Amino acid sequence: MRLTLQNVGKVVNGKTHLYGIDLELESGSFNVLLGPTQAGKTSVLRLMAGLDRPSSGKILEDDNDVTTVGVRKRNVAMVYQEFVNYPSFTIYKNIAAPLRRTKHLSKAEIDVKVRVTAEMLHIERLLERLPAELSGGQQQRVALARALVKDAPLLLLDEPLVNLDYKLREELRSEMRQIFSYGTTTVVYAATEPSEALMFGGKTGILDAGRLLQYGPGLEVYHRPVTARVSEIFSDPPINLIGASIGPQGCRLSLNVVFPLADHMRSLSPGDYRVGIRANQIGVVNRSGNGIVIHATVELAEFNGSETYLHARHGDFTMIALLNGVREYALGEAVSLYFDPSRLFVFDVAGELVAGPEWKPYNTKAA
Amino acid sequence: MAHVELKGIAHSYQSSPASPEDYALHTSDLVWEDGGAYALLGPSGSGKTTLLNIISGLVHPSEGKILFDGRDITGLSTSQRNIAQVFQFPVIYDTMTVFDNLAFPLRNRGVPESKVRERVMQVAELLELTDNLKRRASGLAVDAKQKISLGRGLVRNDVAALLFDEPLTVIDPHVKWKLRLKLKQIRQEFKSTLIYVTHDQAEALTFADQVMVLREGRVVQTGSPTDLFERPAHTFVGHFIGSPGMNLLPCVIDTAGVRVDGHSIPLDPAYIARARSVDGELELGIRPEFVRYEPQMMADYLPVEVTEVEDLGNYRIVTTRLGKQLVKVKVGENVSVATGPGWLSFPPEWTYLYIDGDVLR
Amino acid sequence: MQKTFDNRAWFLVLPVVLLVAFNALIPLMTVVNYSVQDIFDSTHRLFVGTDWFKEMLRSPRLHNALWRQLIFSGLVLLIEIPLGVLIALMMSKKSGWKTSLTLVLVALPLLIPWNVIGTIWVVFLRPDIGLLGHFIDSVLGISFDYPTVPIEAWISVMLMEVWHWTPLVVLLAYAGLCAIPDAYYQAARIDGASGWAVFRYIQLPKMRGVLTIAILLRFMDSFLIYTEPFVLTGGGPGDSTTFLSIYLVKIALGEFDVGRAGAFSIIYFLIVLAFSYVFYQALQRVGTGEGK
Predict the structure, then answer these.
(1) Are B173 and B201 members of one domain?
(2) Closest CA to A355 of A276, A279, A288
(3) Dist. CA A283–CA B335, nearest whole Å
(4) B278 lies in the same domain as B338
């Protein structure tokens, strides 16, 4: 089902929660809504479901105006953060519950659907238990099953994995990817972690303080953020944003580092800008040969098992670099950081992207 | 700052435990060195919070003794133990200002007001709360509140250990970075014994010098983050740490190595000899970071089929099929991988054998 | 959670509106009608405008009844709220059959019909056959005859009222206490806080919502009290326990002065309406405050 939001806004008690959201979700697409907490993700999901009515704008399902249609009349399934299951029903009854309301299905048909969905989520052996007897991960699978069994054209998930421990999250995420790749359900998944957006693939919408900043294929939004704010939200570890000015001498970073303009920056007019360098674009080795050096002092080195996050300070600015391998650094140690100017994002003072590193959408099909 | 030791500790939440399943923590001896930063890492239900609560005194262990600097403190109450604990969600006194919140533990112990002031200002500066000292604690954002909770633990300089129970759970991912940095700075400034419970391996590995991995009430391995990553002693550690976890492939011993689904993988002969002398289910373990991938055929490489490539911005995860087994490989963002045929090599220095889950040394 | 709006909901309210109109609004209009007239009998009526209102507001008997009422309500709050909280603090927060039993026993007085309560205490306090009355009179040797001694009548009424309504405060406070997560108590133990500090800085602030409800509810109810004191003392001896509503009934039915009573009713009604408004506002603020 194609879902369209036209200039949708939401005002509650005088406070604006959502400002004019324009969004078009293709039928069968997988969409991640990425943004910090309080960005408005839950508000958007509730409007899509019909639990709330927008204060302004229209919502269309396949060209039908459903702005005023309540949730009971819409065919939507929703999964929440707090694994919500009927506590007094067995798992079987929990999953069958949404089907019982549609009277066109016989008991046998319901039984088949329940068992197939349970198997998809690996809970077929728990059908006779009560939700209280299950672990967090299993309960969330039941909630998912209940949403999937409906086969609704629209499936909304509000940070469903946030209350599970990280390994379980990984497992459920890859299972969900498999499940959602079949079928024609349009899926909208709200998340706060950028890695989730990238892991699911599909399209990503960036939401911040009630505004939709960008929407497009996940990797495109990641590699071509339209504003500095988008690049901030869609990065983990945080992107390094540094003030810069472009003039006759080339580009001067506020860190007193000067270098000639890279190709993609040549067409920019002189003036003040902000440049963004992702943590993994900074290294301690001059990889590309034309790396520009920043001399910094180590503030902190964190090991992630296979990588090192290096926090180094130059003047007032602390940069974060993601280095391969485990490297030990002493606090206060001097270190030379290198970056390749052709990998810089350049944003104007208003925050808009004016120049970005070269990137082509990646094709995994064999040449 | 104290040396914490647990001797013969076991705990069951039931009043009369009958079988091992009734125990949340199985009998073990554990030591935390003075001034060390430790992480207790494990999935939900592994017993890590129970362990933390036994150290803090919130839970009285069914069996065993707890020693701080050699002194048996098993019978002492929480307030007598000089520990500080930060919980999953911020615990602050709503009606007090930030200053009073931080001063509370000191005032309760009768510390003179001038000392209180000095200490509170010191901690407030470290946590960047100085601007908010006069404000009511209830009005602040979640991460500021969590800093206050943390601050209450830091104001007391007689604290034997600082305990953290998944403190970053409610914090936004963007703000987590700043708080982790803060925790590290605190570590350097205060040199207390720090024990941090989490289920997030990234948090555990970045925070701690020594990580204890728990599973079903038992400590499976203790080691530095590097040790746990490069030399997991148990398949569970290999699986739990690392994203994605270690590749574990069932195999059988061959003449010069092992065989996975008909494919031969050469290993050190001495290693193989030791493997032959032990009985049990054999698995080959190698982390996706260490598997070498080549798009073209290379000598001594194994032919696989690349079924999926996930682009994750900084890196890519390549899922390949070796016979019936799945092998995942982690490659950098500049490496081009296409679905279809591919070639893998398992460097022997990163390839381990596991017998019934335990690593063969 | 935001409320959904549906105008069809007004139809669901219609039956109630009609019921209220019939049972309350129409009699209220009748009262208003009476309050502006001097009525001798059904055929002799005289329109007197606001005379009754002016007279009632200046009446010393009314002032005395109002004064007694305020003292009564004040004492009720002073005793019941702390006592209720104290009992709630002593009750275990763990769930189990013992806790459930305690809750039921504590709540029993709330289930008894009010005039029965009055009757129970009438017998209970009789110096000849009442358990308590006899105990005080004969065993303790203090002469006790509440129908004739004003201070003893007051004490009796207070005893009965506290026994009757403190359980409500207990239940509300208990609910509030149960809602406090364990981690707060744990943190307090770690901070070395004394029992009093735990009460002052954790329990009391977190009970703010339920205590607001308890205070306002008890104040309003006690302001309207009629049945129990009437059964117990009849308003006596003399005027000593004549609270506002008892006074009102005395004028209306005892003296058949419907006009005066009507005026007083309206005044009484407006006072209670004002309190309800305050209650409603406070509840709203409490509601949004507990949103965290």
Answers:
(1) yes
(2) A276
(3) 17
(4) yes
- Alpha-carbon gap, residue B355 to B349, rounded angstroms: 18
Question: Please, where are the H alpha helices in chain A?
Answer: 41-49, 91-101, 107-120, 136-149, 166-181, 194-200, 218-223, 228-233
Contact C4 A53 (CB under 8 A): yes
Which of B239, B257, B272 is where one domain is finished? B239
Cβ A78 vs Cβ A33: under 8 Å: no
Do B160 and B306 reside in the same domain of the chain? no
- Specify whether B225 is located in the same domain as B260: no
**The CATH number of the domain where B62 resides is what?**
3.40.50.300
> Structural domain tally of chain B?
2
Provide the pLDDT for residue A152.
87
C-alpha B358/C-alpha B218 separation (Å) is: 14
pLDDT tens digits for range B143-177:
888 889 888 888 887 787 889 988 888 787 777 87
Residues B36 and B106 in one domain: yes
The CATH code of the domain that includes B327 is 2.40.50.140
Please indicate, yes or no, whether residues B38 and B156 belong to a single structural domain of this protein. Answer: yes
Contact residues for B130 (Cβ-Cβ < 8 A; gap 6+): B121, B124
Q: Nearest Cβ partner of B202 from A219, A280, A304?
A: A304
Report if pTM > 0.80. Answer: no
Beta bridge partners of A320: A311
Section B112-129 average pLDDT: 88
pLDDT of residue C290: 45
A354: left (phi over 0), alpha (psi -120 to 50) or beta: alpha
Query: Crossing angle of helices C208-223/C258-289, nearest 10°?
Result: 180
Q: Do B105 and C192 touch (CB under 8 A)?
A: yes
- B contacts of C183 (beta carbons < 8 Å): 87-89, 91
Tell me which CATH code domain C70-291 carries. 1.10.3720.10
Q: Does A38 touch chain C (CB under 8 A)?
A: no
Domain closes at, from B215, B239, B263: B239
What is d(CA B23, CA B46) in angstroms, rounded to the nearest whole number? 11
Contact at CB, B243 and A366, closer than 8 angstroms: no
C64: tokens are 């005395």
- B337 interfaces chain A, CB cutoff of 8 Å: yes
Domain that holds residue B126: 4-239
Q: What distance in Å separates residue C4's CA from the closest CA in chain A?
A: 7
